[in-house]
């Protein structure tokens, strides 16, 4: 029987058609069986007896492979073997009736022959091979033998198929993980050649897969690394360490296909395969992370520097405040001594006045920088005559020079236009503040030589101002501190120099608020020049001498005018009365807001009201509102010790026409009054 002709034919056909693919091998065996036995149909399936689940592996019907549907011939075959474990041959239709109780086979009356075989391939899982014919067969022994041999082959191929399916599924999972990994993956062979990459690598290097495969790590790196080492040599060294059993983790610069450089954190390892050791590199782009880390470091260093500057500022501020206070308190106590002469008292009063002005400047600087940081600084743009303002600044800086006893300094003023009147539009108060800060700063660092200030001829829509000195200059490594708040360039040289360290920071902020910019040139030991720009007027050559009053130019003859001073502090009233003495104006006094309203009601010839904001009974806000209801045309000037924008805004909303800040500047006061009259 072993030499059966049909068996030999079958084996020959299998040998001819067998391939290396298990699924194809299974179909080849089914096909060879069909051809050898000339069966009407051949079915192969997997029967899971625990769930009675049928899985059709192959179905050959009427000369072709088909996808079987339920309730057909194949279901009939599976149903037969549900309760039958041994091989089975049924030769005649009547013998099949006992297997047809489930009525699964549609044309059962035509079925004349059945052969089947079942083999266990797993726990409660069976491989079932069935053959059907619609005619009677007499070669049952040969058929049974052939089906048995075919079943053995099919079991072997099925097991191989299941094994390879598991491998394939595992491989697909690994491929999915490999392809979709958020980190870049590079595989290297034993010659350090790149054999595989994932999609993330393509994104990192801005390339296609083919542009990297076959290259070496040095080919996708700059020639040298940040530490100066050659990429090629250092790369081989790191790979050799990995191959010796020591995993490596390091930062590495790579070169994209467009030539740009990026940095990645690299984890380097290897796996042992049948083909040898496979080196794998995990890349994580840390360019943005490095930038963030550096930003955090810079921010920390900046914060630490700011803390140091603030500490130095507070220490310096304590000295700067105590010094004038010592003069004010000390000389005041001496003046109380009855034995102090009139000449001495006069001298002491001058020193007290000077110390008070110094203290006020310190306070003003602190308030100004606070307003700047809070975005509450007030800029009041108006038209004024520039040359007159510069002349006044020259007088002020020379007075400052005398106070500091710097006799060997020549102070110069240079005007860019040789015209009598040059009107510009800006904030005269802030321009004066910028100029004086720069000039006083120059006085600190100049003992001999000159200080020159002024402006150059306007061009390009800008006026360029400057302050030039022959002082000590600025050290190159300290230049970045110039415009920093709380920063003083010189913390050791001439430590007796006064100042808050805020002046230049205030100049920088005010210049920007006025629409300009500020910078400097300096040479250590030779001097420094500060420059700043302001927008020039469209018609900067305006020469007409207008009769209208300009800032700093006012009429002091107010004979026939009647002013009301509303202030609960008598000393403030007496001061204003003394200031107005030369103007010939009549001065009335109201001790509170209620009294101010009553006086306005009795005197309909009042020319102006100077209204203190903080008063008992009725404050200046309420008094102003009621006075404006009584006499809307009566000008009111708010006077307040509070310089915050909110207080100033509230005063204007209450009906005040202007406001001035205490302590009151005589020039400013007379200028504001003159503007309203």
Describe the structure.
The chain is an alpha+beta fold and 677 residues long. It has five domains: 5-172, Beta-Lactamase (2-Layer Sandwich); 181-285, 2-Layer Sandwich (Beta-Lactamase); 296-371, Signal transduction histidine kinase, dimerisation/phosphotransfer (DHp) domain (Helix Hairpins); 378-535, Heat Shock Protein 90; 562-676, Rossmann fold (3-Layer(aba) Sandwich). 42% of the residues lie in helices and 22% in strands. It contains 17 helices and 23 strands. It has helices at residues 5-17, 22-37, 73-80, 93-96, 140-180, 199-205, 231-243, 287-335, 342-374, 386-404, 428-444, 503-513, 570-579, 593-602, 620-630, 645-653, 666-676; strands at residues 41-48, 53-61, 64-65, 88-90, 113-122, 125-133, 184-188, 194-197, 248-255, 261-273, 276-285, 382-385, 409-414, 423-426, 449-455, 462-469, 518-523, 527-535, 562-566, 586-590, 608-612, 636-640, 658-661. It has a six-stranded antiparallel sheet, with helices on both faces. It has a five-stranded antiparallel sheet with strand order 8-7-11-10-9. Helix 8 packs antiparallel against helix 9 (342-374), helix 10 (386-404) runs parallel beside helix 11 and helix 14 (593-602) runs parallel beside helix 15. The longest helix is centred in the middle third of the chain and has 49 residues, at 287-335. It starts with a helix and ends with a helix.
